[in-house]
Write a structure and sequence with these properties.
By secondary structure, the protein is mostly beta strands. It folds into two domains: 21-227; 237-359, no CATH class. The protein has two helices and 36 strands. The protein has a 22-stranded parallel β-sheet that branches. The N and C termini lie far apart (89 Å).
Length: 359
C-alpha cells in the first residue's frame, strides 16, 4: 500500500500538469468554458503563449488573422460536422490580402499547424489591378495544414487558395493534407521560393477544384522541392500540376488530373536526381503530360485517357524515359521524342500516331 505522502505527491504532479496544459490552451467562442476564452481568433492568437494551442468553437469569424509565433490553430466541428469559418471582415481585407497568414522570418522559421477550419473569400472586394486574394498563406514558416476547406478566392483572376513561400536561407517544410481547395481563379496551391534547396512542400490527398476560365494552375511548384501524391485536380483549362525545380528531382505520384489544358508539366531539373511522374491518372486533358527542358525525368505507369492533343509530349527534351504507360484515345501517343529519350513497354489504344519524332 502506497503511503499518503506518495499519493499526495502524485496528485500534485497531475494537478500541475493539467494546469500547465490548460494554461497553454485558449479558446475562441464559448464551447470550452473551462478555458480562457476570446471572441475573435486574432485576439486568442495574440494572447496565446509561445507554442500554445488555440481551439476555435463552431461559428463564423469575419476577420483577418495573422500568426507570428509557433502555434496550433484547431477548429472544433459542430455536431453536424461543420467546421468554423473565417470570412471577410465587413471593412474588407488589409495588408497583403491573405485571410489567414503565417508570417515567419528568414533567419528563424517556426512551425504553425492549422486544422479543421474553413476560409471563405466571398465578397473580398479585392481589385486584381492593385492586389491579390489568398486564403491561407505561409511565409518563411513550417507546419501542417490538414482538413481545411479554402474556398471562393475568386476576385477576378488573382485568387490563390493556399500560397507557400520559402527563402534562400530558410530551411522549412509545409505539409498540406486531406484538404479541399475550391473556386479559386488563379492558383489552387502555389508553392515558390527563390531557388533555394531548403523549402520542401508535400501535398497529399487534397482536392483542388475550380472551373474558373482564368485559372493558371491547380497545383504549382516553382523552384520548390516536394512530393505531390494522391491529389485530385479538376479544372476547365490551365495546368493541373506543374513541377519546376532547378536543383533536384520532384515526384508526382498517383494523382488524378481532369479537364486541364496541360495535365502534368515537368519543367527544369538540372540536379542529380530525376523527376518522377509515376502512376497518375489523367482524363480529358489537352495534353496529358508535358516534359519541358532537358534533364533526367521518368514518366512511368501512368493511365492517360482521352487527350485532345497528345497523351505525352516530350518536347524534344533529352534524357526522358517513358515506361509502361497506358494511353487511350489521342491523336498522338508520345510526341516529339528526342534521340536521347527511351520508350519501353507503353501500350496504345485508339491512338492515331503512337509516336512522333522531333522536327
Amino acid at each position: 500500500m502506497k503511503s499518503p505522502s506518495i499519493l499526495f505527491s502524485v496528485g500534485i504532479c497531475l494537478f500541475l500538469a493539467t494546469a500547465t496544459s490548460a494554461a497553454q490552451t485558449l479558446a475562441v467562442g464559448n464551447c470550452r468554458p473551462h478555458l480562457t476564452s476570446y471572441s475573435t481568433i486574432s485576439a486568442a492568437v495574440t494572447a496565446a503563449p509561445y507554442g500554445g494551442t488555440v481551439l476555435v468553437c463552431p461559428g463564423t469569424y469575419p476577420e483577418q488573422v495573422t500568426i507570428a509565433q509557433p502555434l496550433i490553430l484547431m477548429g472544433l466541428k459542430s455536431a453536424t460536422g461543420v467546421e468554423p469559418v473565417i470570412t471577410v471582415p465587413s471593412g474588407g481585407l488589409l495588408g497583403d490580402d491573405a485571410q489567414l497568414s503565417v508570417q515567419g522570418t528568414d533567419d528563424a522559421p517556426f512551425a504553425v499547424d492549422i486544422s479543421n477550419l474553413a476560409v471563405d473569400g466571398t465578397g473580398s472586394g479585392v481589385e486584381c489591378s492593385t492586389g491579390s486574394l489568398t486564403g491561407i498563406k505561409y511565409v518563411f514558416a513550417s507546419g501542417t495544414v490538414e482538413h481545411v476547406n479554402v474556398r471562393h478566392q475568386s476576385p477576378g483572376g488573382c485568387g490563390i487558395g493556399i500560397e507557400l513561400s520559402g527563402g534562400i536561407f530558410v530551411v522549412n517544410t509545409v505539409n498540406v493534407l486531406d484538404s479541399r481547395i475550391e473556386d479559386f481563379d488563379a492558383f489552387g496551391i502555389f508553392a515558390s521560393s527563390d531557388g533555394a534547396t531548403g523549402f520542401l512542400v508535400n501535398l497529399t490527398l487534397n482536392s483542388v477544384v475550380s472551373v474558373r476560365p482564368s485559372v493558371q494552375s491547380g497545383i504549382e511548384y516553382l523552384l520548390t522541392d516536394g512530393v505531390a501524391e494522391r491529389n485530385a485536380v479538376v479544372l476547365s483549362g490551365g495546368t493541373g500540376l506543374e513541377l519546376a525545380n532547378l536543383f533536384s528531382g520532384m515526384t508526382a505520384r498517383s494523382n488524378t488530373v481532369i479537364g486541364a489544358t496541360l495535365g502534368i508539366v515537368a519543367g527544369t531539373n538540372e540536379g542529380p536526381t530525376p523527376t518522377s511522374i509515376d502512376g497518375n491518372y489523367l482524363f480529358n486533358n489537352g495534353t496529358g503530360i508535358l516534359v519541358s527542358f532537358s534533364g533526367e525525368k521518368i514518366v512511368k505507369a501512368n493511365a492517360i485517357v482521352l487527350s485532345s492533343t497528345a497523351a505525352i509530349n516530350l518536347d524534344c527534351s533529352d534524357q526522358v524515359a517513358a515506361e509502361n504507360n497506358n494511353i487511350f484515345g489521342a491523336p498522338v501517343g508520345i510526341a516529339n521524342v528526342a534521340s536521347g529519350d527511351t520508350l519501353t513497354g507503353n501500350v496504345f489504344y485508339f491512338v492515331t500516331d503512337k509516336t512522333t519524332s522531333c522536327p
